[in-house]
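User: Hi! Is it possible to get a structure for several chains at once, not just one? Here's what I have:
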Amino acid sequence: MNFIDKLSAAWTTNNSLLCVGLDPDLSRFPSHLQGQPDAIVTFCKAIIDATADLACAFKPQIAYFAALGAEAQLEQICHYLRNKYPHIPLVLDAKRGDIGATAHQYAREAFDRYGADAVTVNPYMGFDSVEPYMEWADRGVIVLCRTSNAGGSDLQFLDVGGKPLYQHVARLVAEKWNRNGQCALVVGATFPEELAQVRAIVGDMPLLVPGVGAQGGDVEATVRAGKTAGGAGMMINSSRAILYAAPQAGEDFAAAARRVAMETRDAINRFRG
Amino acid sequence: MNFIDKLSAAWTTNNSLLCVGLDPDLSRFPSHLQGQPDAIVTFCKAIIDATADLACAFKPQIAYFAALGAEAQLEQICHYLRNKYPHIPLVLDAKRGDIGATAHQYAREAFDRYGADAVTVNPYMGFDSVEPYMEWADRGVIVLCRTSNAGGSDLQFLDVGGKPLYQHVARLVAEKWNRNGQCALVVGATFPEELAQVRAIVGDMPLLVPGVGAQGGDVEATVRAGKTAGGAGMMINSSRAILYAAPQAGEDFAAAARRVAMETRDAINRFRG
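Assistant: Yes, the chains can be modeled jointly so their relative placement is included. Here is the combined structure:
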């Protein structure tokens, strides 16, 4: 099953648009895991098990693993996800962007090494920096469009022919780059009006929407702005608010994560109809 | 010594603007290294030793290591470079770009884990995605501006207020982002006229210039367009043309790499005066 079909099925099966981000930060781990050699894997597996029936996708952020030299642990976590929850899409958040020959190496990293169903990429270097990922015909390519950080406006809001650059990117991807139906876009939850603009441009294309939770995006405004006519079309990501829901609670971190994940899923669902 | 000073010293000491890129591709390794467990490290160390007196910088491309699961080998190679050739800047080509908290993780990866003197980054997410790298005050931040691939024009050539986007990025970095004098830009050799435009905007800011060698950029046009008044200001990168100068030559791969590196350095130097 390809990425888009797998995502659509997960929206239905788990009645959820929630994407659970996996950003392991050792300093925020529960005390009983501090100093354990397999803390990252133990922590992430517990979060996955606690939320797998509530999520439409899992999204490991590779930077957190790379900073710790923990690629082997990321491999283990991805292997666990693919085998235990093969129906939940695995999105590798890597935001890669490089010339074709190098992009091919990054595609091997994401799809062959980690077995991701989809990977995030940066559009600044153009279509030939994105095309190599599409050789993996069953995988998804999620292109940065409008990001959730304040500085995103520095380039993305520049005026190009009367429209901001991010809308140009949305149009480029929807009309040209998405030849094989593999594309999705990253559009932050911090700008609901812009999310609505992108939705109007790209039809039913899936949107990965970070910025809810620790980044402060408003759930109601986000869902109303970004949903498709069918009330889906989004992976609304929350990472830190779920992972570190009970930073001082010792053994209960997974239960706390589940509670927040369920609250977030349900809050989202209230505005899908 | 900070990155810019170290680079300036290397330009002088080695009388060179040549940056040697390290893109290990196992399928192009000499036959006697094929299948050896330490082939990547052996190959890269031999290239480094053969060219260290000819280069102003070394630039490992992290994608080639990531595709192979060879982060430990990259650590070894970086450690070797820093210890044996501490006067030659180590540029990690990673083209990272993410929100602040995540960018901080990528900065830890580049600067603490690999000990890079500088790292390449993508400007699409704006200043707050670049700023975290600047906390490492002695390191360099090399921002993508005009890339050497054909598809680079898709976004970088869009008209923003009468000028192409890449010139806007050059101006942003030169006038706003380069607060601490840590910044450099990536400008491809495949567009000498655009290289000249960037040089006119950014003064003496160092430029990392890929696209000479396997990518076909013209050395004379590149040097004339990109040099500073002092005849320097560039890291002109060549990777594959040096690394795989003698793909069938067995033991002589390092000697062949040295010959091509010397020819390239000397060709560059002919047009610096």
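Chain A touches chain B through 52 residues (CB under 8 Å). Chain A has a mean pLDDT of 95.

User: Great, thank you!
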